[in-house]
Amino acid sequence: MELRQIHYFMAVATHQNFSRAAEHVHVSQPSLSVQISGLEQELGTRLFDRLGRKVVLTQAGELFHTHAERALRELEQAAHVVHELHGARRGRLIVGALSTVNSYLITPLVTKFKQRFPDIQLQVHALPSSEVVSGLLGNRLDLGICLLPLAHPQLTMVPLLEERLALIAPPDMKIVKKRMRMQDLAFLPLVLMPVDYCLRKMVEAECAKAGVHPKVVLEMSSPDGILEAVAEGTGATILPELYVRPRLARGNLQLIDLYDPAPRHGVGLAFLTKRYRGPAAEEFARLCETTIRELQSRPTLPRVTAVHSYRAG
Amino acid sequence: MELRQIHYFMAVATHQNFSRAAEHVHVSQPSLSVQISGLEQELGTRLFDRLGRKVVLTQAGELFHTHAERALRELEQAAHVVHELHGARRGRLIVGALSTVNSYLITPLVTKFKQRFPDIQLQVHALPSSEVVSGLLGNRLDLGICLLPLAHPQLTMVPLLEERLALIAPPDMKIVKKRMRMQDLAFLPLVLMPVDYCLRKMVEAECAKAGVHPKVVLEMSSPDGILEAVAEGTGATILPELYVRPRLARGNLQLIDLYDPAPRHGVGLAFLTKRYRGPAAEEFARLCETTIRELQSRPTLPRVTAVHSYRAG
DNA sequence: CCATTGCTATAGCAAGAGACTATAGAAAGT
DNA sequence: ACTTTCTATAGTCTCTTGCTATAGCAATGG
Asked: What are phi and psi of B160, to 5 degrees?
């Protein structure tokens, strides 16, 4: 059974006439006759009664017609949904992002994305860098935002920005200057993430580079919780500057640059190299870069208060 | 879009591997690759992510898959129902039959037919001969049983039987012999069908042949009503012998043969010559002939009392 | 009653689509 | 580094399908 035969069949059924049906499907009448009779032979039954002037469906033809019509509709639908997807008017985009990046980058990004592609189902999961990677490899994520450097044969990395870590101290803590050496951290009580967290490991790595051993007085698993603890004077902490900056507005925290060496790390966009990402993902990636440019041009970003319709699991 | 492409697509989707899919659909791997990439090109999107070891559907592929699967199911169904029809396990047969023939031939015939083809939807309409013909020409009937002779260029007639008309008289009417000349009808009060009925015309035609003018004392449009009137002594009537015979059992009617000339007419099976009739109609025609042979071998047929599930409109 | 018209089926020929073999090229496993 | 596994490409050949011309059949009109 060939799709061509089905199309011809439908044409004859509607026009009740081989010659006109042939015109309608842009073939010669004999070609159409041959195809129809081929179909009839394959099915073992006449589908049309050739009654001289008119051609009408037999019972078999009628039964066949109902199903054939539905089949063609389904194929049309199949092509249609794919084209909708291509125009990004349909589809699903699953992104995994570092939780800190999530808070300052994703929030405005999602707003823009939803404006442009209101019908794309967007999911943004806050995940540690390792799970972003495994999610990409396991095909559970379309895009990932994770730490650099990362060299994996199956993944492509696009560097997005450099995150600087800054010291966050309670307002009453007396700091000599607006800057502090990494070595001076050794005498400071710190509130940090638990040891199995990515952010903690990064802080420890930076301290190790400077040859200091941080004095941890409290471990909390949520960055916001840590900031509250700091605001209450429990100690200082070290967090990505971009993450903390919008939270400084309330005035109960002070931000101190660290140096010698300045703690920083790259953040990049990752995806499976061989995987076809689709227009929605491409656009998301583009929006990432423009959003970052905007963030960097406005050092003190006002807190975004809009409610976003994305799920962060 | 070709059906071949859809089949190959489904195979790759299920096996997640081009080579094995190719084996499964009995083509070489390159042929399958070409077809898939042709489909992708036509749709403007990748349908599969070739991830080295595995091949998985893209989002577009998944969307396409659901519809493609349904389309294939519909086509399977289309072929299936046609085959069911071919095996006479499905379908509809619409027969138009003369009302008199209807009563004695169709009743046992329907019983047999329903036994052999329980799933065929059978409709038997009691119609005058002219409407049988127009019904066939208008494609509203699959088969017809009508009067002979009938020569129509589009219709094929198969003679089935000769119906003899007989005089039916009340039991108290004194008849000299069991036979009566047509001429003697002139003095008999008759109960006949109204003039626009086929049966009435036939009776008048037979009388005309014998040169007599029937004396009609009552007109009724139902043969059974006529018989009741005759039984009550209103007059005699003329009806097909086969129709009346099973109704003689009650003993309130007597049947007298007519002769000189014997009134008779042929009855035949009719259908559109060019129309494909299908196995159900073929079988119905065969059953007609066997049933008639049975009827003629048992001159006094017992009244069939079974309830039949056919509609007579 | 013959000729014409309208429609479908068949025959023969030309072009194109698809299938196959061989092979390149990339990635995963040993 | 080598081998294996898998997909993509190139070239050749065959089969399918399309086309034109025409036969054949029924209905219609002069």
From this structure: -110, -50
Answer whether any strand C atom is within 7 A of the Cβ of A58: no
Residues B217, B204: Cα–Cα separation, whole Å: 14
> Do A8 and A31 belong together in one domain?
yes
| Nucleotides of strand D lying closer than 7 angstroms to a protein CB | 6-11, 17-22, 26-27
Q: What is the pLDDT of residue B301?
A: 43
CA distance A208 to B22: 56
CA B113, CA A76: separation in Å to the nearest integer?
A: 42
Q: Which two tokens stand for residue A180?
A: 């502090």
Domains of chain A: total: 3
Containing domain of residue A47, as a range? Answer: 3-86
Same domain, A177 and A243: yes
The model's pLDDT over A42-82, given as tens digits with 9 standing for 90+, comes to: 898 889 988 877 888 988 899 899 889 889 988 988 998 88
**Cross-chain CB nearest to A78 (options B59, B64, B83):** B64
CATH number where B283 lies: 3.40.190.10
**Burial tier of A98 (Cβ tally within 10 Å: 0-12, 13-18, 19+):** buried
Q: Are residues A50 and A81 in the same domain?
A: yes
Q: How do residues B231-254 score in pLDDT, each as one tens digit?
A: 888 888 998 888 888 778 777 888
Verify that B134 and B281 share a domain, yes or no: yes
Least CB-CB distance to B276: which of A49, A67, A75?
A49
pTM over 0.85: no
The phi, psi pair for A105, rounded to 5°, reads -95, -45
Which secondary structure element, helix H or strand E, spans residue A137, and what is its range? helix A129-137
